[in-house]
Design a protein that fits this description.
Elements lengths: L19 H15 L13 H12 L7 H22 L5 H9 L8 H13 L7 E7 L9 E7 L9 E4 L8 E4 L8 E3 H15 L1
Antiparallel strand pairs: 1-2, 1-5, 2-3, 3-4
Helix pairs in contact: 2-3, 3-5
Length: 205
């Protein structure tokens, strides 16, 4: 709360200044506050049409993909992250929630944890006509944080032929799209990212 200086007249102007860094922090806080995330138990539930659309896109990945398996992937990918949002106590946009996880005020919810937990849940289904892969973005860009996701493909297909299943991006509301059309994130296969990191470490040694 700002307290009035009793030595000032009622019509005088209160002047103050902020350092450039402080001003940037204030502006960032205002922007993030404007993009607030609803409480996890109030996240919108997926419509049947949303699940059906994702199922159709998964089935289109290959002629041998079971429609029933595609339906299950789509339904779980939409519904399970909503449960994770409650378990993770998500109340903020993803980057703010990341900070809270890292400082110990939230239990879980970094991007790779969303991906780990969604992948683990999907693998419980024992799919035989679909394959689950992992991808990482921004590993080559030191100015951006890395991002992890699950990718669903036809068996034996490249990760680049698959569909991104990303619950982190919208705080539990599933984002999905074809890997090559997700222009926000330059995805690479996780194994390739790990290989590059090992090679860099060996080069330093």
């Amino acid at each position: 709360m700002i307290q009035r200086d009793p030595t000032r007249s009622p019509g005088s102007t209160l002047k103050f200044s902020l350092s450039p860094i402080a001003l940037l922090l204030v502006l960032a806080t205002l922007v993030l506050s404007a993009c607030g995330t609803p409480p996890p138990d109030q996240l919108p539930r997926p419509h049947h049409s949303d699940i059906a659309e994702l199922s159709r896109e998964i089935q289109a990945l290959g002629a041998g993909i079971s429609a029933e398996e595609a339906d299950r992937v789509a339904r779980i990918s939409y519904e399970y992250p909503l449960r994770l949002a409650v378990a993770y106590e998500v109340e903020d946009p993803p980057y703010i929630h990341n900070i809270k996880v890292n400082n110990g005020t939230k239990p879980r919810g970094l991007c790779y944890q969303w991906a780990d937990d969604l992948e683990a849940r999907l693998r419980q289904e024992g799919f035989t006509t679909l394959e689950l892969q992992r991808a990482i973005a921004n590993s080559e860009n030191p100015l951006r944080i890395e991002h992890s996701t699950v990718v669903v493909t036809a068996p034996g297909d490249s990760m680049y032929d698959g569909i991104v299943l990303d619950p982190w991006r919208n705080g539990g509301r599933l984002f999905w799209g074809h890997v090559t059309e997700d222009h926000k994130y330059p995805w690479l296969p996780r194994d390739e990212v790990f290989r590059r990191k090992r090679a860099r470490l060996l080069a330093v040694d």
